[in-house]
Design goal:
Number of strands: 7
Largest sheet: 7 strands, mixed
Order of helices and strands: HHHEHEEEHEEE
Distance between the termini: 29 Å
Strand order of the largest sheet: 2-3-1-4-7-6-5
Number of helices: 5
Radius of gyration: 16 Å
Shape: globular
Length: about 160
């Protein structure tokens, strides 16, 4: 799975994949995760069960919001007030986050939601795999880097408001 995500993002970075194709590919991969066998699920301290969001770094926030609203019909994600320089659009149960920060045209991070998220157990499992989590979200989650350095956010889906 990590190799597939890395390939999609690399193709996007090289310009051989559109944003739409990137988002579609990531959604397909997220759906594939849902098909994981129950025995594999039971062996982990968490299970990714949702595609939370993709965060894109855009040059012109207004232009990008207009593009995604006009072309894809994405509604405004109204559960969170957009901070300055950032805007969120709803994509199914997830969202597309656009941020006006450099470098432009980059994928800032990909976020996955996880059930049964025992932060201490997940941290220990990741460390055994040679992965060091980066604290950013208090008790609800953190980031890890994929093999190519892309930040992958893991956030608990339990007790969300």
């Amino acid at each position: 799975m990590e190799a597939e995500i890395s390939q999609l993002v690399s193709r996007y970075d090289r310009g051989s994949l559109s944003r739409r194709e990137l988002i579609q590919g990531l959604a397909i991969l997220a759906a594939a995760v849902a098909g994981t066998t129950e025995s594999a699920i039971a062996a982990t301290p968490f299970q990714v069960n949702s595609f939370g969001h993709v965060s894109l770094q855009v040059r012109n926030l207004e232009r990008s919001v207009k593009f995604y609203r006009d072309v894809f019909g994405l509604p405004v994600f109204d559960k969170i007030v957009n901070p300055p320089g950032e805007f969120r659009l709803k994509v199914g149960s997830g969202m597309l986050v656009m941020r006006n920060v450099e470098p432009f045209g980059a994928v800032d991070h990909v976020a996955f939601g996880a059930d049964r998220f025992d932060k201490a157990a997940v941290t220990e499992q990741l460390k055994q795999q040679g992965i060091t989590p980066v604290e950013t979200h208090g008790p609800r989650g953190f980031y890890v880097l994929d093999p190519d350095g892309y930040p992958i956010q893991i956030v608990s889906t339990e007790n969300q408001t």
